[in-house]
Amino acid sequence: MFFEREKGGEKAVLVHIDFQEEAEREDSDEFLELVRSAGAEPLALIRGSRNHPSPRHFVGEGKLEEIRAAVEEHQAELVLFNHSLKPSQERNLEAALQCRVLDRTGLILDIFAQRARTYEGKLQVELAQLEFMSTRLVRGWTHLERQKGGIGLRGPGETQLETDRRLLRARISAIHRRLKKVRTQRENSRRARVQAEIPSVSIVGYTNAGKSTLFNRVTASGVYAADQLFATLDPTLRRLDITDVGPVVLADTVGFIRHLPHKLVEAFRATLQEAAEATLLVHVVDAASQERDDNIHQVESVLEEIDAQDIPVLMVFNKIDLLEQQPRIDRDDDGKPLRVWLSAITGAGVELLLQAISERLATQVVQGCLVLTPQHSRLRARLFELGGVQAEHYDDDGRCLLDLRLPQKDFRQLLSQLDLDESALVWTTKP
């Protein structure tokens, strides 16, 4: 892991500054959740307000003294800022405070490094860490001027910093090559699903909104879910059979967060591509959160950044058990499902979600009473195999009457396999 965890280094002093501009503001409660998710022990929270960050130390001289006093009082070895710091500001702060300093981006990277489980996830985290570290290489190498030479080895050479940058560039290039192979494999899988006309549904939402809990509830999977930020990093795909639609690929994706570092968006583009190329997005929202509307806006911003803003969205307001609300579906004037209110932890309303997904995806359904003669025995058998037969009856002439309801694409694909002409089939009203 890039951020070495020294003994006792988990005790941290936190710094949160309120700025006048709304776009630069961060949430202090969310910051505390990030710190706890990283495994650190918050000892003190230093708050302040400024119009603009100080170019040298980000905070003013008075606030810097307050932070230094808190570090000495609590014997802290780490100061965490709820903001993005410039490399020069980070170096100046470390020199002034005589301890490690980490900004919001570095903290999120550390959490990602702990949670990555798959080969692709670990590569993506390492890539983001290396690109983040490449701008901060001056730190730690200031005591070295030139590599020591000897007889036959004298000359200008290169500084340790230059050597390290060269090694970093080589490692970054190697990771890019490996990720390219992974992305090609993932793209081939998507292409195969598209050719088979299998719809894909991606679960997106703000971190800790309950996406993985809902995913487990719907698919009966054992995906890791916890009440912490970024519990899920690696995308998980499961097949799900939806009424009137058939097989659907359901994807659980990484959670979003306000001011998600651009390097992370770039590094996780292959993962987020599952959302960018989905047939339908299920946007899970923590209905009990006080920041609900702002969190929705932040997710929409990330979706726009990965070019997924035009994909149809079904909103899911989760955790209604905390609001004492009843499960329901909100529809537009045409009856199309827009929002589903449910509780993933209790399971209340999950069947309404499956119903809403079915209505949003099943745009064309074959429904009616099909008349079959004995010559159509193979068609009858295959229709039962597809699960499209609702009921079966026989008339006085011995003909088979099937009440059908199944996706039109499945019905036409079956007729093509059996070399049957759809126009030659006979339909009637239900007996």
From TrEMBL:
Record has rRNA-binding as a keyword: no
Protein name according to UniProt: GTPase HflX
Matching SUPFAM superfamilies: EF-G C-terminal domain-like, P-loop containing nucleoside triphosphate hydrolases
Gene name of this polypeptide: hflX
Organismal lineage: Bacteria, Pseudomonadati, Pseudomonadota, Gammaproteobacteria, Oceanospirillales
Organism: Marinospirillum alkaliphilum DSM 21637
InterPro entries reported in the protein's UniProt record: EFG_III/V, G_HFLX_dom, GTP-bd, GTP-bd_M, GTPase_HflX, GTPase_HflX_N, GTPase_HflX_N_sf, HflX_C
UniProt subunit comment: Monomer. Associates with the 50S ribosomal subunit.
Gene3D superfamilies: 6.10.250.2860, GTPase HflX, N-terminal domain, P-loop containing nucleotide triphosphate hydrolases
UniProt cross-references to Pfam families, sorted A to Z: GTP-bdg_M, GTP-bdg_N, HflX_C, MMR_HSR1
Subcellular location: Cytoplasm
All residue ranges annotated as the Hflx-type G domain in the record: 199-365
